[in-house]
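Let's practice the habit of predicting before peeking. Look at the sequence and jot down your guess about where helices and strands might fall. Then scroll down.
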Amino acid sequence: MALWYAVSASTLLLIATTTLYRSIAGGLDAEGDGYLGYSIEYLEKHPPQGGQSSHDMNDWPYEDVRILDEAGKVVFSTPHASAHLPPTLVTGWPGVDYRVTNGRWFRALSRRVGGQTYQVCYDRTRELEVLRHYRRNMWFVLVPSLVASAAVGVLIARRGLRPLVVITATARRIGPSRLDDRIAMEGLPSELDDLARTFNAMLGRLQDSFARLERFSADIAHELRTPVHALRNVSEVALQGTGSRENDREALATCLESAGRLSRLIERLLFLAKADDPRGMLAREDVDVIRELKVVREFYEPAATEAGVQLTVEATAGIRFDLERALFQRALGNLITNALAHTPPGGQVKVSARETSASLVVAVADSGSGVSPAHLPHLFDRFYRVDAARTPGQGVGLGLAIVRSIAELHGGCATAESEPGVGTVVTLTFSHRRR
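Done guessing? Here is the structure:
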């Protein structure tokens, strides 16, 4: 960084001094050419008399003059014109600088006016000497400036990178056991303020993810331990005893139930893993939404009747939409199962559907216990459970996460609104398939 600063500062200094020098030199050249051009105009208007002798030219107001006729013959010249004016000059070009035998510098201009060629020059040795001194002084200023800019660049780089050193030290300290560390925002320059805020926000997300993984590990261990222990205990009893055929059937039924719980848990985890890479997962087809809602209601009607809950479907007839039929049924099934589990007897669960210009909106509303505002933002998070107590058979909080994944696979989203003691409404939005 210090090197780049020194290089950039040096480049700017070099450009500035060079531009200034060229501006001064160009200005002097233009001024000299203007002076010589004015001299030629004066000579044209006030030509020297033909009988004028060279002795009378000593007081001529211009340095040296030579006038040629159309044939190139000299018709007039000042005493030192042959020594100070080169024998050939390109007519019509800008003024040229040249050095004569005595070491002095001249600038000459040649123009053709009215059939005659006028060649005029003047001594500009002093001007060039001034420019030479300027170039020398320019290097005297430029070299120390380059050294100073390099030194200042090192200081600025160290001071500017000091907050990055603090950020780096904080990042090195952070680990799985210190995810609560954050970058101190006090004293940071405005250029790094956004970086620090973004880094702190990332740490917050990581901390939250680690916390969820810890809860997941504990819940999964509990959910796996219960059926595995049941399988092991029942198997040991069946192997050690000489029970009747009926007892053996009961042992096998217990083993089958525990294996079913394990299978359902593994199947849900595999689904969520596949949902993270949805390529090739969807096979959409034109689905009669009302018919699918009625099929799902008929499937869950016995469970709702047993729980004393009224299950209804409200939707406009004729709604058809491109959906993955099995996933759509699974999402509705998870929502209805969750609603029935949290709705007391005498309550109601209502499934509704409507179509907009861009999407299909399906809502499952219940009159159950509701969810507190503190839990609502995390309702669809994986492994999250409102009730932290581990009740066997309750699950590990994957049902609503699967619902959200299904909605997102269809290009939509899942949202929830709830009021404790009143009920909860979960809304699924499915977007139209892009043609």
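How did you do? Residues 334 and 399 are 6 Å apart (CA to CA).
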